[in-house]
From TrEMBL:
Assembly and oligomerization: Monomer.
Function: Endonuclease that specifically degrades the RNA of RNA-DNA hybrids.
Segments forming domain RNase H type-1: 76-225
InterPro entries associated with the record: Ribosomal_bL9/RNase_H1_N, RNase_H, RNase_H1_euk, RNase_H1_N, RNase_H1_N_sf, RNaseH-like_sf, RNaseH_domain, RNaseH_sf
Protein name: Ribonuclease H
Amino acid sequence: MASKYYVVWAGRETGIFTSWPQTKALVDGFAGARYKSFSTEAEAKAAFSKGANLSTNSKSKVSSKKASQPNSSALPDSDVDIYTDGGCEPNPGKAGSGLALYRRGVLAELWYGLYNANGTNNTAELNALHQALLMAKTELNIGNSVHIHSDSQYSLNCITNWAYGWKAKGWKRKTAGDIANLAIIQTAHALYDDIKSQLKISHVAAHVGIEGNELADRMSIYAIDQQDTGFRQYPEPIVLADILSLRAG
């Protein structure tokens, strides 16, 4: 019995493999590679089947130019997966927000902007999450399932948890002092509360090679470099090698 089973949804060859060197050869340098290891063959077969079904008939606008890729991508579990990130140099200092949107596991759009010369990492993360919620509402309204992935525990707690207690107390904290970033928290929370029954939202680990998170990170720093106060879509075609070679946060 193999010690591990490797599922490749997107690579030079797809399927279930029991050799890491073989799997590595299939995904290294492959643009948009998607793979993951599992402890049992049953788990691998179930995951491969789910991933293959999600990818059926989907078309990527991403260039096939070979690139040095992140280690892995999270298995998509919704029609639309949105990854968000915020950056600030230094903190506080120049801030920007980024977002990567996938449709059925295929990278479809990158967004950047909301530059603030006097921002913080927290405001940048909140702004990115707010933009993701706006997009999520649009997608939900046309019948798509949506999963938002944020690497900011602070932003997620503010919007999905702490805001309920603050709101019940007239938007006041239990202890003395004002709530930081209150305006954007109130706006984003109202939007989240309206769609939460239809939405999946969760924390994703930062800088561990998850493609969507890495791309959102690059977009947040690109926003700082461009000093763009709007929120704009990165122009197509999306060449992963070029995006991943941008400065990381």
